[in-house]
Design goal:
Layout lengths: L1 E5 L8 H9 L6 E4 L9 H15 L5 E3 L10 H8 L3 E3 L3 E7 L2 E8 L8 H6 L3 H19 L5 E6 L22 H10 L3 E4 L9 E4 L2 E5 L2 H4 L3 E4 L5
Parallel strand pairs: 1-2, 2-3, 3-4, 6-7, 7-8, 8-10
Antiparallel strand pairs: 1-11, 5-6, 9-10
The chain binds fe (ii) ion (2 copies).
Length: 233
């Protein structure tokens, strides 16, 4: 199965780069959006990115997304309704798709951070409790979906590990990944974790025990990440 994935288009900031990256991408079986698709939550910019994908690669595959910190909470409903005909947005939700005969369970979440940013401490009430809650919610969704599917994907914005943030400036590293998510991934063993957010990372692939982790942040990779997985299943 061919999976294409990207995060951090921050449209319109990297929309030109995204368009060039699409030239090197062939139509996948599943297209994943790992958050920060827009800057400052503008729904029309999200729709522009989705249109570009459909114009270049066709419409024969599902597009599934999670939100990033640039998809502001108060604008998520507007984004979801703007793109709902073409994209399933997973905001702490799960979805089961059958693709090439494989039942795929996808859990989508923005994720958490090891340390909240100063903006988050000022603006998100009880932010550490909120980060804990998100991790518990993701874990319960992973547990619930596992028995019903052949493969499990955790689609998140923040990184679940330090390894795929290597290259980020030292002072921002606590704001790029979540120890809680790394721990729950060790317990629940999803088959694949896709994330974005780490724009400056120079290591785009890591393993958490048997789980493959890919950072698909466009500014980091310079391309749409294309994975060929589970073909022999
Ligand atoms: Fe970003
Ligand atoms: Fe981000």
């Amino acid at each position: 199965m061919k999976i294409a994935a990207v995060g951090d288009v921050h449209s319109p900031r990297y929309l030109g780069e995204f368009g060039r990256a699409l030239n090197d991408c062939s139509p996948p079986d599943l297209f994943l959006l790992a958050g920060d698709i827009v800057d400052q939550g503008v729904p029309e910019e999200f729709a522009a990115v989705v249109s570009m994908i459909r114009d270049r690669l066709g419409t024969a595959f599902p597009i599934v997304g999670c939100y990033g910190n640039q998809e502001y909470t108060e604008l998520r409903k507007a984004i979801a309704s703007r793109v709902r005909d073409h994209v399933v947005m997973l905001d702490e939700r799960d979805l089961i798709l059958t693709i090439r005969g494989i039942r795929i369970g996808i859990v989508g979440t923005q994720g958490s951070l090891t340390e909240p940013t100063s903006w988050q401490r000022r603006n998100i009430p009880r932010v550490r409790t909120e980060f804990e809650r998100r991790a518990r919610r993701a874990e319960s969704l992973l547990q619930r979906i596992r028995p019903s599917v052949d493969r499990v994907i955790l689609l998140m914005h923040y990184s679940p590990c330090l390894a795929t943030c290597r290259g980020e400036p030292e002072r921002v590293v606590p704001w790029t990944w979540s120890r809680r998510f790394e721990e729950l991934i060790r317990r629940e063993s999803p088959d694949l974790v896709i994330h974005g957010h780490a724009h400056n990372s120079v290591v785009h692939e890591a393993w958490i025990d048997g789980t493959l982790v890919r950072n698909v942040s466009l500014p980091a990779t310079g391309r749409i990440t294309q994975l060929e997985l589970w073909t022999d299943d």
